[in-house]
Specification:
Blueprint: E1 2-8, H1 17-26, E2 30-36, E3 40-45, H2 52-60, E4 64-70, E5 78-81, H3 92-100, H4 103-114, H5 120-129, H6 138-146, H7 153-162, E6 166-174, H8 175-185, E7 189-193, E8 195-198, E9 201-206, H9 213-226, E10 234-238, H10 244-249, E11 252-256, H11 260-265, E12 269-270, H12 277-280
Parallel strand pairs: 5-6, 5-10, 6-7, 10-11, 11-12
Antiparallel strand pairs: 1-3, 1-4, 2-3, 8-9
């Protein structure tokens, strides 16, 4: 049995009962359940619809996301999340580069890297070199003034943890930010790269080994094993090329507002909803969601 989920951006109320009933009828579905009024709905389907991608494209034009997945085991016991452009709305290295006066140059390298055009490790070293001699106190300034959280993130983490889930933040960014973001959102642990500093200045180097695509896959395996879980019990979310390995290994891998190369290789895509969509995909209703204090 499969579960079909339709959802939109919270507050948009783009889903009508007529639209939901129409798709249920066309796909021979049953048990229509509203998870959030006019914003998230699900129903059971006996098979994977052959015209899924055609319908997906039609609904994308209406700003509606469509997911079909196996019903069994869809509620996961662990969240493994990327940070930049996933749990937060920015790329931290781009924001640091703006303070260093090399913003456009670094942002271009970041964009090409996240779309899989450049080697992640080489590109990271190149960008960090451009931050050499930037005062390390700028990190706190950037966090306070430039970083904003992706909508739905606090509710996602709080709800999964309230239901016995474990939450890990795994980023190709920097521990100076993952520590702050993990503490703010309530993650159990975090992993990222470490910017080297001396005399209150960034050295332009990052401590080895660099946490990139393969390291995220290793983190998924290691953290889930430590929690007595298998990769199939993990919900992973990310947006860039360096997230592809973990998204493909996890039981549920979600491409959130992702780069084209990621959308091409990951079938569970959220382009309009926010991070609460990851709760709806697991069958949580809006009434089940936990808002942190």
């Amino acid at each position: 049995m499969f579960i079909t989920t339709m959802l939109c951006k919270p507050g948009q109320r783009a889903l009508s009962p007529a639209l939901a009933q129409s798709l249920l009828g066309a796909w021979g579905g049953r048990n229509l359940t509203w998870l959030a009024a006019m914003e998230a709905v699900e129903f059971e389907t006996p098979i994977m619809p052959q015209n899924f991608w055609q319908v997906w494209e039609e609904l994308q034009r209406l700003a509606i996301d469509l997911i079909v997945q196996p019903q069994a085991g869809r509620q996961k016991k662990m969240l493994l999340a990327d940070m930049d452009s996933t749990m937060i709305e920015q790329e931290c290295i781009d924001e640091l580069a703006a303070e260093a006066g090399v913003g456009p140059r670094v942002a271009d390298i970041t964009a090409r890297t996240m779309n899989g055009e450049l080697d992640f490790e080489q590109a990271l070293r190149e960008r960090v070199r451009l931050l050499k001699n930037l005062p390390s106190i700028i990190i706190e300034k950037v966090y306070q003034n430039r970083i904003t959280f992706m909508p739905g993130g606090p509710v996602l983490v709080a709800t999964m943890r309230a239901n016995g889930g474990y939450a890990a933040l795994v980023s190709g960014g920097f521990t100076d930010f993952t520590q702050r973001v993990a503490d703010k959102l309530g993650f159990n642990e975090h992993h990222a790269n470490s910017l080297l500093k001396t005399g209150g200045l960034l050295t332009g180097h990052v401590a080895p080994p660099i946490l990139g695509r393969e390291a995220k896959v290793t983190a998924l395996r290691d953290i889930s094993k430590a929690q007595g879980l298998s990769p199939s019990e993990v919900l992973a979310v990310g947006d860039g090329a360096n997230d592809l390995g973990m998204l493909q290994l996890a039981g549920t891998g979600v491409a959130l507002h992702a780069k084209p190369i990621v959308q091409q290789q990951v079938s569970l895509r959220i382009n309009h909803g926010d991070l609460t969509a990851l709760l709806y995909l697991q069958g949580y209703a809006q009434s089940d969601c936990v808002t942190p204090l």
